[in-house]
Write a structure and sequence with these properties.
Blueprint (H helix, E strand, L loop, with lengths): L1 H6 L11 H24 L7 H9 L4 H34 L14
Helix pairs in contact: 2-4, 3-4
C-alpha cells in the first residue's frame, strides 16, 4: 500500500518527447560530442593548419601524425570518457537517492 501511494502520481508528471525528436536530439548530441573530441585533438600548444591537421589524421606516420595520434587524441578520448562516466554516475546517484530534482516536473527556482 505504501508503494502504491508513492507511485500513484508518477504518470501525472511524466513527460516524454516524441520519438522523432528524441532521435534527432540524440543524433545532434552525438555529432556535437564527436566534434568536441576532434576540436580537442586539433587545438594545442603546437599550432597546425587545417591541411596539416587533416594530413596528420590520415597519415599517422608523419611527425604531426605522431603528435595527434599519440598525444592529443588519447587525451581527448580520456577526457570524453571521464566526462561521460561522471554524468552517468551523477544520474545514477540521483535515481538511487530519489532526488526530487531529477524529476522532469521539478520546479526551477531562483
Amino acid at each position: 500500500i505504501l508503494l502504491h501511494c508513492f507511485f500513484r502520481n508518477v504518470n501525472r508528471f511524466s513527460f516524454m518527447m516524441p520519438t522523432a525528436q528524441r532521435r534527432l536530439l540524440f543524433l545532434l548530441l552525438a555529432l556535437l560530442s564527436a566534434a568536441s573530441v576532434l576540436a580537442a585533438a586539433a587545438i594545442g600548444s603546437v599550432s597546425m593548419g587545417w591541411e596539416q591537421w587533416w594530413a596528420a589524421l590520415t597519415g599517422p606516420a608523419s611527425e604531426s601524425g605522431e603528435l595527434v595520434w599519440r598525444l592529443r587524441l588519447p587525451r581527448a578520448a580520456a577526457a570524453w570518457t571521464v566526462g561521460a562516466l561522471l554524468s552517468l554516475s551523477g544520474c545514477l546517484m540521483q535515481v538511487l537517492l530519489r532526488n526530487p530534482l531529477a524529476h522532469g516536473a521539478a520546479p526551477v527556482c531562483c
